[in-house]
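[Q] Does anyone have a clean structure-token version of this?
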Amino acid sequence: MKIRSVLTALALVAGALLTPGFGVLAAATDAQAATKITHATATSMFGSSGITWSSSGGCSNRNVATCTSFDQLNLDTAKGAQTLRSATGCALNITGGTETGHASGTYSHWNGYKLDFGKSTCVTNYIKNTFAYIGVRGDGAQQWQSGSGNVYADEGNHWDVTYYNCGGC
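[A] Here you go.
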């Protein structure tokens, strides 16, 4: 009876350790475990927070680079934008979402982890005075990291933000 109890306990521990999003392998599966939302859901969330969005093409088709789409955006990314808006009190205008045409990678626009925000003095001052400067990205963009780990890259005419989480929502 004792051997059976030990084997059962070992099986439960092994199962917990290997469960995606829970055990020691959680970091390897977080990118796949993100909750995706639709364009309509995202625009509703942004609108309720006073966040605007614009598109150089005047469209929202995810497969057109000149559009601004939120299809397949991570829920935490949308919440992160809401957190930024609330924390800063600044006007926020999203100029890039999940549409094609951005750099690839796991934590990319296409995969729902990034948003581009139009530059304003209010947003820029908040980021540079509140977050920690972490150096220059490979493409030359200066970066700041929030206390929650999200990364804000200054790409000249806009902020490229990588949301690993909702920013303390």
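[Q] Thanks! Anything notable?
[A] Helices lie at 2-18, 26-33, 39-48, 75-88, 121-130.
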